[in-house]
């Protein structure tokens, strides 16, 4: 019980501190939903992005995090964020905010509708055709898995298709995968399974805020990034 209380206090404190440390966006109001990455998670991802010099970042699930990532990446020569979402209207909104903060040039927004990948289970994931087109020729340094939405029993593991699809294009010299919402059973199972099946290290530094970090065992992260 005591450890649980201490953990909750630590998470709340880190999230509050992170809100103060995130880069200014210059927007009067940023709408947040229950699906958004926490301030803690965004801060941790940005730490890794800068310290490990990530130049091609793929984000599955666009949102508030897209704005912060773009704000940092626009200052990094040759860097690009490829942000994927199934909701065209939401992508248009995100695109407008990117233009308002002057960071649209650092981001490629990709509309990839959800399609059945396992007809017998009704599991849906992003259109393979749209993703292959968007990622053609890319060497990916960082992946952020925060979509599609997974709220019910029948889609609890909808994000499980991401790693196998992206693996051929992950940087052979080192990469990182972030999985949000690992405090939920579906994402936790995916996170643990990927570590085992693809010989990845689970970096426990960010699990306190529900963010899982995976890196190749042969190429561990150079920095503690929390």
Q: Overview of this structure, please?
A:
- This protein has 226 residues and is α/β, with parallel strands linked by helices.
- It has one domain (2-216): Rossmann fold.
- It has helices at 2-21, 39-51, 64-73, 88-100, 128-135, 162-166, 185-197; strands spanning 56-60, 80-85, 107-111, 114-118, 123-126, 142-145, 176-180, 200-203, 211-216.
- The strands form 2 sheets. It has a 7-stranded mixed β-sheet, with helices on both faces.
- Helix 1 packs across helix 2 (39-51) and helix 2 (39-51) runs parallel beside helix 3 (64-73).
In short:
This protein is an alpha/beta fold and 226 residues long. It has helices at residues 2-21, 39-51, 64-73, 88-100, 128-135, 162-166, 185-197; strands at 56-60, 80-85, 107-111, 114-118, 123-126, 142-145, 176-180, 200-203, 211-216. The chain is built from 7 helices and 9 strands; from the N terminus they run ααβαβαβββαβαβαββ.
Which features characterize this protein?
Rossmann fold; 226 residues
| CATH level 1 name | Alpha Beta
- Mean pLDDT, rounded to whole units? 91
Helix content: 25-40%
Shape: globular
Number of helices: 7
β content, as a range?
15-25%
Structural class: alpha/beta
